[in-house]
Amino acid sequence: SHPDLTGVYVADDVAFPLVIDALNSIGKKVPDDISVVTFAHKGNQPIWQKEVTRVEIDFWQVGFNASTLLLQLMRDQKNAFGKYEIIKPELIEGQTVKKVQQNIETK
Question: Is the Cβ–Cβ distance between 39 and 102 less than 8 Å?
């Protein structure tokens, strides 16, 4: 019911196959008709016949950092309050996003 829809972002790699099945059931082909990108655990390739385009993050590192900060707060280490660390995600380009050519007009 959304003919202008060109892409879907799937929140996690576990739901990815369900989204693909739903798209197939309404006659949409990935990536010809619609692009699909998923969020995945670092090193996890969702199971599909093509390599999946995904944003990977190291959840082990996220958990480790969170646990370390929590232990520091529990030990009343005031320097841990408000501290944060950015874990950079990585875009893995697979075969689930349609390549588009954008025409840019210059004046």
Answer: no
